[in-house]
Write the structure tokens for this entry.
Amino acid sequence: MSIKVYAAYRLKKSTDLWPWLRDTRRQGEEEVRGVLRKMYGEFADEVDPHSDEYKKCATVSGRSEAAIRLNIAHKAIRDGYKGQLTDPYRGPFNFDVSLTVREHKKRLYIIPHCDYPMSKTLDFLKADPRLEDFAYWDNTDHPEHISYSDWKKRRKVWESLTEGNDWEDYLAIVVMEWSKFYLVDPYHGMVKEADGLRREPH
């Protein structure tokens, strides 16, 4: 069976699991929030102020133009994410981000799961001193900076995990999923910022 684990890590000390888990979830949520903020900005810039939707939102008194645009962007992004849940194909609203942790001979192995537009939200793991790279694939040669003996050790670990029943036994760390959208979503904070800027005296 071919093995392709292009992004994976091993926790240097298994006792670091829970502190690492908490730190990773929090930082991951901040990274996701940053991507969403950027998306809101891009969507808001594209809103047509002559559209019926814009005019309808504009009837709410006290709203700034920026807040109206954000409201429309929020609906599009939220609905897009919700629609992604039943779509068999990954698209531009696939915001799910998670990690799985598997155990092998008392060592813990971590695989990040995130796709575009969230594909870089877990890149901070590369610099985490508590982790070491443990990616492995057998469809091409091993990287030059990894020795053949170390590459072979990685192969044994992943072969053992994928070929046995251990693969289905894992801890899942959810950074972002639909049920958490309201917790991570930066929309309300952005609207307060937009309306607050409007009310500041000149």
Q: What stands out?
A: Strands lie at 4-5, 9-11, 97-104, 107-114, 131-133, 136-137, 171-176.
